[in-house]
Amino acid sequence: MGPLSDIKVLDFTRVLAGPYATMILGDLGAEIIKIEQPGSGDDSRAFGPYKNGESGYFMSLNRNKMSLTLNLKKPEGKAIVEKLVTEADVVVENFRPGTMDRLGLGYGHLKTINPRLIYAASTGYGQTGPYSQKPAYDGVVQALGGIMSITGSEGGQATRVGPSIGDIAAGMFTVIGILTALHERENSGKGQMVDVAMLDCQVALLENAIARYEITGQVPGPIGNRHPSIAPFEPFDTSTAQIMIAIGNDKLWQTFTSLVGLEFEAPEKFVTNPDRIRNYKELRPYIEAKMKEKTCEEWQVILDEAGIPNGPINTIDKVVSDQQILYRNMIQEVDHPVAGKTKIPGIPVKLSETPGSVRSAAPVLGADTEYILQKYLGMDEGQIAALRKNNVI
Amino acid sequence: MGPLSDIKVLDFTRVLAGPYATMILGDLGAEIIKIEQPGSGDDSRAFGPYKNGESGYFMSLNRNKMSLTLNLKKPEGKAIVEKLVTEADVVVENFRPGTMDRLGLGYGHLKTINPRLIYAASTGYGQTGPYSQKPAYDGVVQALGGIMSITGSEGGQATRVGPSIGDIAAGMFTVIGILTALHERENSGKGQMVDVAMLDCQVALLENAIARYEITGQVPGPIGNRHPSIAPFEPFDTSTAQIMIAIGNDKLWQTFTSLVGLEFEAPEKFVTNPDRIRNYKELRPYIEAKMKEKTCEEWQVILDEAGIPNGPINTIDKVVSDQQILYRNMIQEVDHPVAGKTKIPGIPVKLSETPGSVRSAAPVLGADTEYILQKYLGMDEGQIAALRKNNVI
User: Fold this and answer.
1) CB contact under 8 A, A319 and B59
2) What is the pTM of this model?
3) R_g over Cα of chain A
């Protein structure tokens, strides 16, 4: 079911960047066999908070996957991987470069077993270059990659992006690399390696900051919540919560001033956007005073009716109950065998004919071990019991 | 050249989300025909700063594309699109829902011309739902989608992510949708519509925030630069710039304390990570004092040698000269016919056999109009001159 339902993925990933990538592939229908260390599994199974002992972190990243426990350091474990690789389309891993080679499961070896295999590795710094062997965490990569230096209040400290965008962006580009390699394989008949670095992806997220620096020679800093060249375009306090207002052009400005009832001593100072930018210190108090006269909800209704772009700064409790987000099915409920009913994010890629779907909650550790060994390797109960006795699975 | 070189994209996008998507496709080899309004073109051509009159913003998002000027409101313009659609694989647009329908170029019509066509629309709120007709800007979407509410200093104000992650994430998921639909077309022979909303994508970026809220009932707030459950894991002042340090486990902690020469009055308070979290207020001043004894560069060398994850908080000038970023070819120089040599971000998807490439700088407005009309529509100079006279191109 789903547009990638003919694709089999062997998933060696753990924690965030890799699991985010295979979650996207699974959402779109790919069969994901997640290979986990017997006993402990993906490190993030230990990350709290927990629901009936199951990690919320793990559950929010591993729906639509099967769990196969496998000790990769045992010859029998390695042999099982080699057999699974013969039928797999994609391997994904996010170890430090060289780890899979040391296990005897590097791309150089696996492609001799299956030349059509696409092997995707997501790492902190990439397979090559002077930092390739350095350990990476999201915080370090956000620091090195420049995004922190342009996030934060104006003139203030560099600020980490709340969600781990260092990992998440790498997960998304890994998916793009895999899907591109699958397309190329239709023509060449051959697989290839996809090498995605968290740090590279941070550079790719910088938008126009590099161009601005190159052209002006000025080092961009944190810009706060205000738009650098459009005004007003920032949050304002109301009598309740803040509201974000974005007056993108002069026509919207005219609508806004008459709608809100703004009256200026010297209106000629605020006619065009360049005027408003130039005289913003004088302008802002007028708007501030007005916006405090009503609640955030009242302003939303008024501004929406006039087509003025606006919105509340939703906290997570508001996000999960927002009517558009719910309409778009972006909060889904899964029934986990241990944790029970749990809410997780939906699928942002909406396809008209072959939509993705959330078909199963995250697996408990090793939930699908027997099924996979029977189905793909034709093992019987005795063979599986022997593997279990020898701590292979 | 490149893994998507057999894919033709008709690109109606402007500003950021859409152009980011078609840039990724172009980087990976797809042929991108960017259709622009005669005279003005993509709105972002007017966004400063400029180099020899060319927008740095536009140039950093539109390499590897051809520019065809076309007035879509003229019947001749519409007819040219209809002819191009017969040979296209993908249409991408980021207008408000309904705009392409009003031009007579909606998916419902285009698929009758080419049933294999994949039609991708990137919008603020999606094609459906109560907000679908509302205007959206990155700032508003970041506010509504929750990412602002968990970004910022601990206990402080909600903070916008510096780069326009509302647009950029939508661009990336649009690419994932297009590549998935291309894969599905190999099996079904049919195209479909890809509907990606900026707001949906923000929800998909929230990482484990939804799970945390669902399980604990506590609304997540801005977490600052410190890790919520690992310590020390944040930036510290040195005698020069700040350095990010990430001590991910107790073994690294032991290495770190002896390496740095940390001595405590009550060392038993800081042995395990839970200890360090519990007693962090007492711990932090010890580390602060030590880190101020050397420069950021000196600490980097010392910590790197011991395998302690660390890094400076690079500003953009440092990013564009970082040795790993340069090694990975993540800063590329293009020679623009008007602006001259310009640095732009490289390609984060590294494919071993069929790599992407930056083959051309962003086009000047209409640079490829004649070439495209001759090549795809077989027009001669007289026909093209007539179109120009009638303000069609």
Assistant:
1) no
2) 0.97
3) 26
